[in-house]
Fold:
Amino acid sequence: MAPREKTKAGKADNRERLIVGLSGASGVAYGIRLLEACRDLGVESHLVMTKPAEMTIGYETALKPKQVAAKADFAYAIGDIAAPIASGSFKTKGMVIAPCSVRSMSEIATGVTTSLLTRAADVMLKERRPLILMVRETPLHLGHLRSMVALAEMGAILLPPVPAFYAAPKTLADLVDQMVGRALDLLGHEWPNVRRWGEDLAKGRRKGQEAT
Structure:
């Protein structure tokens, strides 16, 4: 997919930048919702998605890849290694790959990157910026686990999209929002769609705590 031109990527408005990656694993709803959350929070979003991700969008949503790209402030082709997000000199708050396939995870773990998605992730690690991987796979074999250990040792955050049933979700959208909100928590953003134990949920509050 060709980059979507809007205005020149710059820091004139002083907004934080977040890179959002979509790989071909099931669960593209997480990445799509993350783009929407960025817009809610006023965060400048930079999107890169793989060709399998574009296929999964067709399988799992009623959207077309171009419609997903339109939710981002900037979108880049998967082969555009000259894109701004491929360089450490392009400052960002971090990167979230949602969902993250085992193939993408494995490339990042080895440092042998073959696309803009994994190159941008590698940049996060070398620049010591947050890299959050919503790895979507189960069960896991030993090779998967070893890759995860390597990534954790390099500073990546592994955030499998595990449902938070304590938040009493009523819909799939509730489950998606809770995980997207938890990813944003790790980047220091407060997104109101997260239901918090001990705060929003009465069953998690202790005697004497006031409801917010």
About this structure: The first helix runs from residue 28 to 41. The mean pLDDT is 91. The beta strands are 17-22, 44-49, 74-76, 94-100, 131-135, 157-158.
